[in-house]
């Protein structure tokens, strides 16, 4: 298959992340293929003999003659891929615990065995997603999309996977008032969900316990969902005066059929892990006592599959849906922007925060 523009751009990003300097000869080759792929045959005047660096670059580009742009792009992607896998194998086998990557306040992000694990880490709030945590999740996913791991896993610390949106997010009202707050929230939500839609490598949810709201809806954008038999799946949007997000208005009817999706998204029916599996939202359910061991053994095996092949397969599977998903996301956010200002939503939020109600 021909390398797409996306593959080419991914390869350009991967070059910046190479752990080992590939040496001047390879760098010149990369330069020449890049120029040929983007501009076609060498169009630079030949540099003087004493302009060593530019002369070497010119020679490398000129040597590609009339190689078609598409072939140059493919060769560039192949070369980067071979460099990435050799730099990966030379960095593997380092003993020791997980490599922690960057400090986050509400997440623990680690990389090991070709797997980047993003763990929600607000267990005392049942991993409710605060405004800062939305930002951190987006940052962590963007970093994972560019790192050298083959798959990315999202999970929760403690007894919950996540209780969804932190209902206290709506108490932090900016000077522009509640309308401004609703507008800002809609923008952030759209970016957040877009990050899942565009995530380029296999994204796996390890659902360790109950999941609520946005932590359930976004599961429809994952590539596989493994759940403990202690997990439940609850989208109580009507109880909160809300409407679906995370593209669930599109993915859920598609995954489970409109009638089952209605029970979840409109009537707020909470599903057990086995019910969610029967309806296609969950890939497989494991007994809680062996959940971590079984899932991680399996994920480690999957992470050894060829990286580019998995990435490309995901692209092929998802490509046709992407535009649709972005449109659905935009529409859901615009509807929610109005719902947040409704009496139904404001009352439900106040009731929860003043401890008059729980789900
Ligand atoms: C801003 C832009 C994006 C918006 C996107 C739209 C997203 C929508 C959704 O996600 S809708 C779903 C929202 N979630 C909820 O409504 C869940 C609310 N929580 C509960 O009903 C319960 O806490 C529970 C059923 C999840 C767990 O009950 P329980 O086991 O009895 O534990 P506690 O209630 O004692 O929880 C401990 C502690 O955490 C606080 N907490 C839990 N979840 C949330 C939450 N989602 N938001 C805020 N706070 C939460 C809970 O209040 C307790 O605090 P306390 O110890 O009492 O101070």
From TrEMBL:
**UniProt domain ACB: residue ranges:** 4-89
Which molecular-function annotations from GO does this UniProt entry contain? delta(3)-delta(2)-enoyl-CoA isomerase activity; fatty-acyl-CoA binding
EC identifiers of the protein = 5.3.3.8
Q: In which pathway does it act?
A: Lipid metabolism; fatty acid beta-oxidation
List locations, semicolon-separated.
Mitochondrion; Peroxisome matrix
Return the CDD domains for the record: crotonase-like
Q: What is this protein called?
A: Enoyl-CoA delta isomerase 2
Q: Which Gene3D superfamilies does the entry link to?
A: 1.20.80.10, 2-enoyl-CoA Hydratase, Chain A, domain 1 (3.90.226.10), Lyase 2-enoyl-coa Hydratase, Chain A, domain 2 (1.10.12.10)
Which residues does the annotated region (Disordered) include?
83-104
Entry superkingdom: Eukaryota
Q: Report the GO terms under cellular component.
A: mitochondrion; peroxisomal matrix
Q: What class of enzyme is it?
A: isomerase
